[in-house]
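Section 5: illustrative case.
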């Protein structure tokens, strides 16, 4: 063994410290990829460890089991969605702007995060078996419904919205309108011989959904537009 030089002797040789938070984050991000590609049943812990640059023992140390890691992955992607939704500050926006922003954000978020759409599809195939075990996701979703409820109530008080709409019904409708062209983008593009992932098509889709939602909220009857809805709908022309 070669002797250390005087310069080398002055350099401390402290062991490299492990950062638990960074390791945990790498495992979660690797888990998102693996569970998206193979679903819960087909996902393999050894592949997640390989992608995360750690060993399997470390994954079990931080998460306990494959099931708990999967639930943590679901909580991560739902948590990111809810966090970004909270940054819309819907309570500070007028009712029309608030609904328009919510539609725009929902569509853009799903488009930017196909992993969320994939995980959602996989978990629905399992009938929500693992998401049901999370207390984090339902708790984090409550503020969004409250913000939508506030938007709708203010819209009715100000004479902008004519309908008494349930907040959850509205959100599920918005999510549905913003979801299917992402979840079914490949089959829809082939079926209709049109690339529905093109920016121009997506811009038109966003505008179309905004018009549908506002037209519904502003009309008291399905076939008749209420007089005060013209100003709101004019925001989209």
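Designed sequence:
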């Amino acid at each position: 063994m070669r002797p250390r030089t005087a310069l080398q002797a002055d350099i401390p040789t402290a062991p490299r410290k492990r950062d638990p938070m960074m390791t945990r984050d790498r495992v979660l991000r690797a888990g998102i990829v693996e569970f998206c590609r193979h679903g819960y049943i087909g996902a393999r812990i050894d592949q997640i460890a390989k992608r995360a640059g750690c060993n399997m023992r470390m994954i079990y140390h931080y998460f306990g089991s494959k099931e708990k890691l999967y639930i943590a992955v679901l909580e991560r992607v739902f948590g990111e969605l809810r966090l970004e939704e909270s940054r819309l500050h819907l309570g500070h926006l007028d009712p029309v702007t608030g609904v328009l922003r919510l539609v725009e954000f929902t569509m853009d978020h799903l488009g930017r995060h196909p992993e969320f759409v994939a995980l959602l599809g996989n978990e629905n195939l399992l009938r929500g078996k693992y998401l049901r075990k999370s207390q984090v996701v339902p708790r984090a979703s409550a503020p969004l419904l409250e913000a939508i409820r506030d938007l709708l109530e203010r819209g009715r008080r100000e004479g902008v919205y004519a309908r008494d709409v349930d907040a959850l019904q509205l959100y599920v409708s918005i999510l549905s309108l913003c979801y299917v062209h992402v979840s079914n983008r490949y089959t829809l593009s082939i079926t209709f011989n049109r690339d529905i992932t093109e920016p121009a098509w997506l811009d038109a889709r966003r505008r179309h959904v905004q018009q549908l939602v506002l037209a519904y909220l502003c009309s008291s009857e399905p076939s008749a537009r209420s007089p005060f809805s013209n100003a709101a709908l004019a925001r989209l022309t």
